[in-house]
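User: I'm putting together notes for a lab meeting next week and I want to include a structural view of one of the chains we've been expressing. I don't have a solved structure, so I'd like a prediction I can at least talk through. The sequence is below, exactly as it appears in our construct file.
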Amino acid sequence: MKKISTLFLMVLTSFSMMANVALSDKEVLVKLYEATNGSQWKVKWDLAKPIASWTGVKVVNDKVIALDLQDNNLTGSIPAELGDLQNLQELNLHKNHLSGSIPASLGNLKELKVLDLSFNSLSAAIPASICNLSNLKSLELYMNQLSGELPSNLGNLQNLETLAVFNNQIEGTIPASFYQMKSLKTVLLNSNKLNGTLNPDIANLTQLANLSLFENNLQGQVPLSIEKLDNLKEMNISYNKFNGLVSKKLAMLDTLNMTMVNDSGVAYLMNVAIEVDKRPIVSEE
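Assistant: Thanks for the context. Below is the predicted structure for the 285-residue chain, given as structure tokens.
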């Protein structure tokens, strides 16, 4: 009888622990609802119903694994508690009215593969903790008011395929670790305040298909090693302060034909190097 009672207590404790975990996820979502003025959302949640029925919430095995609230009139700031959704794989808050900073606690979401906070009014620097998200494949922070520099440990995101941080106020140089992100396919860093040079190690990004760096303050020689990127289909690095010569191939690849801005703010076309035809001369005789 004693053994049966002990077993019953163990089972009861197990169910209690599971309930607490599920309740924890619900508490986090309620915190988000309250922090972002949920009563004014386009599509509201009925907090009296199970979270699996809430619009934009995907639940598997009683765990919240995806949260998609794009274009839903969220206002206010992102609560730090969101970092407690330990099983979250996708967080999409695109096109809302969120302000304040990106919580460093989002770096706790170890399972996260997609993070989209674009088209809001977020400010301050990108927290370095975001670079702890080793499973991340897509990071979209564009169309905000983010400032500061790109995290120096950005290269920790070895599975990242899309990096979109355009139309912000990011400054400083492109970190050295960036050039080791060999899974990158799309890089959109245009319309910021980036400076420094573009490292020839960009040739390491062999999967790169789209590179957009236009409208920054980058300078120096355009690395000819970009020509080694066989998968590169789209490129725009114009409206920077690059100088020197570029090959005809690179000039043609660039959307704006390598239009640069000099120290006086005047736009000009970079000099295109003459490509010598190295084919052997064949006699007509």
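A couple of points you could mention at the meeting. The chain has one domain: 18-273. The first strand starts at residue 57 and ends at 60.

User: Perfect, that's what I needed.
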